[in-house]
């Protein structure tokens, strides 16, 4: 009868396979977590870029005089809520001579993502002729 010796053994033991599988599973789980966070960050970055584009467009629209009077204008664009605020500040020296007013314009874009509220605000001063 032949004696079984470890030197002639081929393959892996069950314990070695289980340890290797456990290491692989933990590594895979960590990679998936990193991928998930990166994916969420990329999506949020895209949402901020879109909100910034909407805010700049609204600010340009207000600066071009398309918003005629001081006040608040609200609108919804997809999932974004846009609030444009315009207030008039008269410049005494220029108003008397040239009929110019200084207007403060602020645009705030709000949206909800992952049950969190996000917002972008842009503001500027523009000069307008008094009509």
Task: Provide a descriptive summary of the structure in words.
With 131 residues, this protein is α+β, with helices and mostly antiparallel strands. It is 44% helix and 35% strand. It has a four-stranded antiparallel β-sheet. The longest helix is centred in the first third of the chain and has 50 residues, at 14-63. The radius of gyration is 31 Å and the shape is rod-shaped. The relative contact order is 0.14. The mean pLDDT is 84.
What average pLDDT do the residues reach?
84
Distance from first to last alpha carbon:
113 Å
- Large-scale geometry: rod-shaped
Sheet with most strands: 4 strands, antiparallel
Low-pLDDT windows of residues: none
**Tally of alpha and pi helices:** 2
What proportion of the residues form beta strands (DSSP E)?
35-45%
Based on secondary structure, the structural category is alpha+beta
Order of helices and strands: HEEHEE
Give the tally of β-strands.
Answer: 4
**Strand line-up in the sheet with most strands:** 1-2-3-4
Helix content: 40-55%
Cα-based radius of gyration, to the nearest Å = 31 Å
């Amino acid at each position: 009868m032949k004696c079984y010796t470890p030197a002639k053994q081929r393959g892996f033991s069950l314990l070695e396979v289980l340890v290797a599988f456990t290491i692989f599973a933990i590594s895979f789980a960590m990679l998936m977590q990193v991928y998930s966070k990166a994916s969420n960050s990329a999506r949020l970055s895209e949402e901020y870029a879109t909100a910034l584009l909407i805010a700049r467009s609204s600010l340009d629209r207000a600066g071009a005089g398309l918003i005629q009077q001081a006040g608040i204008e609200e609108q919804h664009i997809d999932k974004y809520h846009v609030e444009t605020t315009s207030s008039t500040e008269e410049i005494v020296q220029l108003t008397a001579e040239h009929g110019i007013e200084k207007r403060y314009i602020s645009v705030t874009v709000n949206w909800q993502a992952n049950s969190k509220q996000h917002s972008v605000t842009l503001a500027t001063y523009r000069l307008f002729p008094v009509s």
